[in-house]
Amino acid sequence: MKNIFKIIFSSLLLALVVSCEDDDKIILNESSSATLAVDKNTVALDNTTPLAEALKFTYTFPSFNPAVVPSYSVEFGIKGTNFAKTEIVIASGDVSSVSITHKALNDLLLNLGAKPGEATNVEARFKTAFSGQTNYYSNVLNLTITPFVSLKNLYLVGAATESGWENNANNLPLFRDPVNVNKFYYTGYFAADGFKLLENLGEWHPQWGLTAGNVTVSNLDGTNEPGAFTVPAAGYYTFTIDINAKTYSLTPYTVSSAPYPTIGILGSSAPTGWDADQDMTASTLNPHIWRLTNVALTAGEAKFRANNSWDVNWGGDTPFSGTATIGGGNIPVNEAGNYDVFFNDLDGRYLFIKK
User: Fold this and answer.
1) Which of 104, 114, 263, 268 is at 20 to 30 A from 195, Cα to Cα?
2) Residue 220, number of CB atoms within 10 A of its CB
3) CA 237, 238, 239: angle at the middle one, nearest 5?
4) Cβ–Cβ contacts within 10 Å for residue 231, how many?
5) 66 preceded by cis ω (within 30°)?
6) Within 10 Å of residue 81's Cβ, how many Cβ atoms?
7) CA distance 283 to 156
8) How many CA within 13 A on the CB side of residue 68?
9) What is the per-residue pLDDT across 94-150, written as a single tens digit (0 to 9) for each?
10) Nearest to 154 by CA among 243, 250, 251
11) What are the beta bridge partners of residue 4?
């Protein structure tokens, strides 16, 4: 008899708990749906303007009965995947628009599996979410977005160079072309020996070199490793390589000026502003190539100058890399961060590598 009472009591208790749980659930009625619009449906992302606005979305909020406070976002997916894999941009409930920069949108697309340099069909929708409840969505927008090609860097390694066969010993980089980002230049002194090119300091692969006279690159696992580029005699050369076209040249260069005693960088983006130079360090083997390591720059402008004087100064008009001219304009620094900065006073080429 006691067991029967226990069973009846337990059943009643369970029914009471289930009933309470059902009472706690909120049944929402979406009285009006969200809408989503965008300022343009096609955009090619630009790595030279990472912080500029790429797209601006405007939206209207859905209405619910009873009134609730959800979270909002713009959700992205590759067209044809039915949003199986998504990335989001948080949308504020206090305003009716949200913008996304070139860099942020580029990172988002690469996370979704888009390929740099290829136009990608993307879908976007406004998502309204509740904890433990069904999500609600707006209309779907169709976008065509082309991610930018990530900027590569190439570093010298080998007995013909200052760092020898060490892959992380202040290896000097080649200077990237500001337009054709697959083309690189280096004008400087080489010893009579060989060298290769590394994509990442401290890593032997991928590495670029020659195989049967052709420009090739090793695989990440070290297979298909190429041989070295050969310098026939010690001296100054201009080395040029296009890693997309797989072409290169090594031509003698005549130096017509002595090294400067000092070269520095200054400007609104530099720690010392326009008032004083942030001194750079000359390469031991290449006294015409200057570097400044891990300097904190803000978004702004910069120039190079010799001997802490405006008598000889260099400026350019392209961010990240380019060719500065004597008395040229201010170099744009579009993105704040810590940089390794390089400058070659022989040909005016400069390179800003963000850490």
Assistant:
1) 263
2) 9
3) 110
4) 21
5) yes
6) 12
7) 13
8) 21
9) 899 999 999 899 989 989 999 888 899 999 999 999 876 678 999 999 999 999 877
10) 243
11) none
The CA angle 350-105-183, to the nearest 5 degrees, is 30
214's CB contacts (< 8 A; 6+ apart) are 246
Q: H-helix or E-strand containing 131?
A: none
Query: Position 251: which residue type?
Result: T
Distance CA(57)–CA(34), nearest Å, equals 13
CA dist 240 and 99 (Å) reads: 40
| Phi–psi pair at 137, nearest 5 degrees | -130, 155
Task: Tell me what the mean pLDDT of segment 295-320 comes to.
Answer: 96
Residue-wise pLDDT for 309-324, tens only, equals 999 999 999 999 999 9
- Residue position matching structure tokens 């010392």: 272
C-beta separation of 314 from 268 below 8 A: no
The predicted structure's pLDDT at residue 30: 81
281: three-class secondary structure by DSSP: strand
Q: What pTM does this model have?
A: 0.71
Three-state secondary structure call for residue 337: strand
- Per residue in 172-231, pLDDT (tens digit) is 999 999 988 899 999 999 999 999 999 999 999 999 999 999 999 999 999 999 999 999
Q: Is 314 in a helix, a strand, or coil? A: strand
Tokens of 257: 């000026």
| Residue 202: both structure tokens together | 């401290």
Strand partners, 207: 198
**Top-confidence residue, 232 or 50:** 232
Question: Any idea of the CA torsion for 294, 107, 116, 153, to the nearest 10 degrees?
Answer: 10
Alpha carbons 237 and 337: distance in angstroms, whole number: 33
Q: How far apart are CA 108 and CA 207, in angstroms?
A: 28
Side-chain-side CA neighbours of 92 within 13 Å: the count stands at 6
pLDDT in tens, 35-74: 999 999 999 998 878 888 999 999 999 988 776 778 899 9
Q: Please state, as a whole number, how many other Cβ atoms lie within 10 Å of the Cβ of residue 95.
A: 9
Nearest to 262 by CA among 294, 304, 295: 304
Cβ neighbours for 95, distance < 8 A, ≥ 6 positions apart: none
